[in-house]
Amino acid sequence: MPNHYNFDQVIQFLATKGKQIYGPHFRIHVEDYEILFQLAVYFLKDKDQLKRLSLSPHKGILLTGPIGSGKTSLMNLCRFLQPEHQRFLVKPCRDISFEFQEHGYAAIHRYGKDSFQLIKGSVITKTYCFDDLGTENTLKHYGNECNVMAEILLTRYDLFVTQKLKTHITTNLNSQELENLYGNRVRSRLREMFNLIAFDKDTMDKRK
To answer: What are the beta bridge partners of residue 170?
Structure first.
């Protein structure tokens, strides 16, 4: 996709995709255009606008906002702004915590080092969007308690530094709440790994 595109056409494209995925009632709210513009600039790799908005193409997206603001649906739609082979996978954090309960530390490896696979001589990278970070439970596997998402994020940070592995996140939590839940070590790495894009704290709940 070229750097010079029509943002109105992007909105129209995503609105059409939204209706296909979520049903005919779906619409993109005008008050979300600023957020969506930043996401479009990032996923369409608009170099000039990335620089203007101080967004790094080398980092992932940390999309924050109140419950029901539309974080998950917008990230799901933005997948379609990428070529099919580059599209990230959206994975609810709650599902990952249940995977740990069932499979143990193999679940952590699945979203860490196993994000690189050699297929027909080519290294295929899995980029994940961890959806609703902070809603997962701290579960046990054979009595071993683990803050699963903290471990996954620390592992992916190491791979971000050494292999340029990207990660995306949606969350309702602010920076202090993230630190309280995952510790200062994780919070400090989040600053390095992500571009922060935030809905206004007064954004309405679109599910109502």
So the answer is: 63
